Amino acid sequence: MVTSRTNSQLLALLPDLDSQRIAETLVAFANSDGGMIVLGYDTRGKELMRATPEDIESALREAARLCKPPVHASLEPADSSGGGPALVIRVPRSQDLHSLEDGRVLVRVAGENRPLTGDQIRNLATSKATGDFEAELVAGASFDDFDPAMIDEYIAKREDRTRRKVLGDKQQLLRDVGALDHRGQPTVAGILLFGKNPQAFMPQSGVVFVKFPGVEPRADGGAFGYGRREEINGPLARIIERSWQVVLEEMRVGAVVTGLERQDVLEYPEFAVRESLVNAVCHRDYRLRGRRIEIRKFSDRMEIISPGGLAGYITLDNIIEEHFSRNPRIVQGLFQWGYIEELGLGIDRMIEDMTAYGHPPPKFNAPAHNFTVVLSNHRERRGHFSITTPLTTPEGLTVNERQARALQYIRDHGRITNRDYQALCPDVTAETLRTDLVDMVEKGVLMRIGEKKGTYYILK
Q1: Closest C-alpha to 105, from 373, 324, 270
Q2: What is the pTM (predicted TM-score) of this model?
Q3: What would the pLDDT profile of 255-280 be if each residue is shown by its tens digit?
Q4: What does the longest C-alpha to C-alpha distance in the chain come to?
Q5: Which domain holds residue 407?
Q6: Pairing of strands 74-77, 87-91
C-alpha cells in the first residue's frame, strides 16, 4: 500500500500511464492548489503496476504536451520505505490558466477533476491575472522577523500530520513552502504564518471581535456601542486560536438531558464556528488595506466578515461543491498545522453540524469587496407532521403532491430523510421517492447533506 488515503484535493492516484488522464490531472492541479500524482495505484492505494522512472518521465512529457500552455511539473523521489513508488509527480499551482487540447479547463475539487463553464473560466482567468500577492516580498522584513518558536511548532505539527520526519535545513523548508524566496527574503505568506509581529508590516491582517447585546449594532439602551471589543493580532495560527477562545467565552451554554444525564451544549456547533474563522483567515484578500476580519456577535446570530469577495470561479451558487484558494501557501501551511481537516470539505460539514443542532444552515453573503458567513442561533421548530398543515411551495416551482408534502415536512422539522419520506408516502416505491428528492436537488430547492445511511435533505 502506498498510502491509506484516497484521492483528495492534493493527491491523485492513477492506475496506469495514460497520458490523457495524466494531462487532465496536471491541468486540474495547476489551475487549483497544486498537488501530487502517484502512478500505478488504485484509489485505495493498492499497487496495480510498477512503472520504471523512464516510463514515468516519458508519460509526463507526453501529458505535458497535451496541456495549453504546458504545465511545469517535477519528478521527485517518494518515501518508499514502506514499499511504495520510487517517484511521484509534483504539480505546483500555476499563475497561468491551463486547458487541454480540446479546450476544457479543469480544476481539482475534492478528489475529482471537474470542467468549468464559460463564466467560471472567465472568473478564474481574472483572478489569476490579479497576481500572487502572498508570494510577494515584504518590504523591510528579514529572516530575523520570523519567530523560531512558530517555525518549530509548524515543523512538529507537520511531522505529526504527515508521519514523516522533516530533514534538512529549516530555511530550505521555508523556501519550499513559499515563506522565503530563493534569496531568503520573507514573503507575505511567510510573515503571516511565522512572523513575530505580522501586523507591523500588514496592519490589516488582524481580527476585531465585537459583541452587541441585541440584534442591532447598538449598546444597551439603544445608543450606538457594544458590550465587548477585542483586537486580536499575531501570526495566523495564534489569531485563529485567540479568536476561537474569545468567541467561546461569549457563547451561551445550554443543556440537553438524555435519560438521567445532562449534557452541556454550546450556542453554536464548534466546528461551524472554527471553520468560519479559519476560512476567513485563509481566504481573505490581504491586498486590501484599512480593514481587518470582523467577528460580530449579536443575540440572535454571529457574523464573520472577511475582506475581499469570492476568489476565482467561486460563486454563491457553487460554493458548497467547488473549492478555490486565493492564498494557497497560507492554506497549505494551516492545513499542515492541523487547522484544516480536509481541503474543500468544510462548508459541507458546517451545514451538516448547524442543521444537526436544529439551526438553519449558514447564510453566505458576497457583495463586491467582502464575504460574510452568518450563523443563526435560532432553533427550528421540531414536531410531528400533520396532513392538515397547508401545503405551500416556493414561488414559481412546479412540484407534485408528494414533493409538496416533503417540503412542508422540512419546514416543520428542518430536514427530511429517505425513511421520513417513505413514512409520509407509504404506498409509493422507494425509487420513486428517491427520484422526487433528486429532482428537487437538481432544481436548486433542496440540498443533500451526508452520505449513504446518513443522508438527509434541507432547504437550500
Answers
A1: 324
A2: 0.70
A3: 555 555 656 678 899 999 999 999 99
A4: 76
A5: 401-459
A6: antiparallel
